[in-house]
Task: structure prediction
Amino acid sequence: MMEQSTAGRSRATGAGRRSPRGKTRLFVAMLGLALLCWGGSAIAADPSKGRQIYMKHCQNCHGINGAGQMPGVPDFSRGEALFKPDIELVRRIRSGQGMMPAYEGMFTEEDLLDVVAFLRTLR
Ligand code: HEC
Result:
């Protein structure tokens, strides 16, 4: 009688402890996996890195806030030219357009995706 109730209590306590800890561990594992996927993804462009490149190489023509500094420059603050997909903009920055010099070889694809991500914040 005595033995039985002790066994029942300890089993109940054990189960009560094990269950939430198992859930927490699963949650942490899933969070870690999610962060790993997100951090390792090539499409996780960094607009703050892009901003540094833009301020050094692009703002003298395109303007600090993206409004062009001379005729014929698209106004990024109004979303001009930004309806194209990222990869298409990267290609155009690489090859140059009209008055804009070609940046082929100067930046990595990742750099340019960062810049494009920054351009999209100007709107
Ligand atoms: C010498 C001035 C100048 C510099 C420097 C410059 N651009 Fe441009 N950019 C232009 C002009 C002019 C156009 C419009 C070209 C056209 O449509 O003929 C343009 C167009 C663009 C477009 C739109 C392309 C399209 O086809 O829609 C993007 C995106 C762009 N520039 C990004 C950049 C980035 C990023 C940098 C810096 C790495 C940069 N530009 C540096 C002058 C410049």
About this structure: The chain has a mean pLDDT of 84.
